[in-house]
User: What shape does this take?
Amino acid sequence: MNMKKLTKNEIEANLENLPGWSSSENGLFKEFEFENFINLFAFMTKVALISEKLNHHPQWCGGYRKMKITLFNNDVNGITNLDFDLANWIEKINISK
Assistant: This one.
């Protein structure tokens, strides 16, 4: 798939539909907080399955109840529509507080 790096205006327009998500030169990111570790782990599992289908994998860090996800396309050294596709899927399965 031919990926195109999005412009700042395109990124800002797409972010309007993703509450809580932000962008920087390092990608799209959002922090999540869960009721417990089991909910966090269930969420991670669902994100992993979607990521495999899209062949686009997030950077994430966290533990126990909190997680930060960053989306970035290394092939174009920037944010693409694929990052927004994954972010939208993540929002559909979001079970955080």
User: Anything to note?
Assistant: Helices lie at 8-15, 37-54, 81-93. The first strand starts at residue 22 and ends at 24.
